[in-house]
Amino acid sequence: MIKIISYFTLFSVSLIILNCTNSERVDSNKFRILEETAVEKISGNYILLFNSDSSFAVCHNEQIPTPEIVHPVLNFFVFDISAGEIIFNESLQNGTIEWINDTQVKVSYTPTVIRGDQEDESYYFIYDIQKREKLN
Questions:
Q1: Which pTM was predicted?
Q2: pLDDT tens track for 78-102
Q3: What domain count does the chain have?
Q4: Which of 50, 76, 89, 102 is deepest in the core (most CB within 10 A)?
Q5: Domain residues for 32?
């Protein structure tokens, strides 16, 4: 009787370990796809920003202004980790991007030329992942 319980316990523990190992392997494969996509789409160094549950990631280039490039271009994409695909992609001059919640990113930018009647306008848009559209 004790041997049966021991074998059952050993079998249960083995299943749990195998299940954990498989889920880690799937996650590492999805992360590998994200990294490969980042290398392909973003030239140079890139930065990954995940939402709180890591179901989506924003990948953008590292922007470093230089005397030659005063207003660097922000190249970025939003990546669906579970689907393994880009769901939104854009480039803006002199921009920043940040998560504002788990399903929305805020993209702010400064135009290189501002007309006199535009000074008080806010230059940003919100991208909603669930609606798959810009909100502003």
A1: 0.73
A2: 999 999 999 999 999 889 999 999 9
A3: 1
A4: 76
A5: 2-134
